[in-house]
Design a protein that fits this description.
133 residues; alpha+beta; 60s Ribosomal Protein L30, Chain: A; 6-stranded mixed β-sheet; 6 strands
Length: 133
């Protein structure tokens, strides 16, 4: 049996939380992206509504995937955390805009997030063959 080495990745332009978890972890051809919220590279939360926050969280996800030689098209599965079920329609509109017809499987959870200004967090698993890099 061959053991798969796990690589912890810290991506430039993605703020590092105080808990210091990685932006993503790679295990073989799979990349597990840590939850992305609506902060920009300076830690400023995207102003506005769920649509703006979703767009920023997906931009961060895109940055992490690009650092692993991937794109949104490589996302196999996502877990999304929303703070309010009444915002789901706005979230879904921004999600469809970003992913188009290439949407991954997804679970959506309604839960409070670590900071009250966050409305959404997106965690994802992508299939990005190591040979691509």
């Amino acid at each position: 049996m061959t053991a798969t080495r796990v690589e912890r990745l810290h991506v430039d332009g993605i703020t590092t939380p105080e808990s210091n978890f990685p932006s993503a972890s790679r295990a073989g051809d799979f990349v597990y992206v840590s939850g992305q919220v609506s902060e920009d590279a300076n830690g400023v939360v995207a102003p506005g509504d769920m649509g703006a926050q979703t767009t920023q969280a997906i931009a961060r996800l895109t940055t992490v995937l690009a650092a692993c030689n991937g794109t949104l098209a490589d996302v196999v599965s996502a877990t999304v955390f929303l703070t309010d079920v009444t915002l789901a329609a706005d979230f879904n509109a921004a999600w469809r805009s970003a992913f188009g017809d290439n949407r991954p499987s997804r679970a959506t959870v309604i839960a409070p997030l670590l900071a009250p200004e966050f409305l959404v967090e997106v965690q994802a698993v992508a299939y990005i063959p190591e040979a691509r890099g």
